[in-house]
Write a structure and sequence with these properties.
Helices cover 34% and strands 25% of the residues. The termini are far apart. By secondary structure, the chain is α+β, with helices and mostly antiparallel strands.
């Protein structure tokens, strides 16, 4: 399967994990203004494939979070030469 899509979160975006105990695989849902992006795994996938996908997802999200923190810190820090002197 191939899909290319963008999801641009806002302050109103919700992120939820819908769980169904041991009966079905969980569903990760990002929801904003009626637009929903769901990530779920087919029951036909092996448990090992489910776990591998989840670990890859966690690693990518962890990397994304670190990159956002680095970027946000740079945005919050005045560039050299733009500092003003106190009166």
């Amino acid at each position: 399967m191939s899909l290319s899509a963008s999801f641009h979160p806002t302050a109103d975006t919700t992120i939820r994990c819908h769980t169904y105990g041991i009966d079905h695989a969980p569903i990760l849902a990002l929801d904003d203004s009626g637009q929903v992006l769901c990530v779920s795994l087919f029951d036909s996938m092996s448990t090992a494939d489910h776990r591998a996908f989840t670990r890859d997802l966690v690693n990518a999200v962890t990397e994304y979070a670190a990159a956002v923190e680095e970027w946000a810190t740079a945005q919050d820090t005045p560039a050299i030469g733009t500092l003003t002197k106190a009166s």
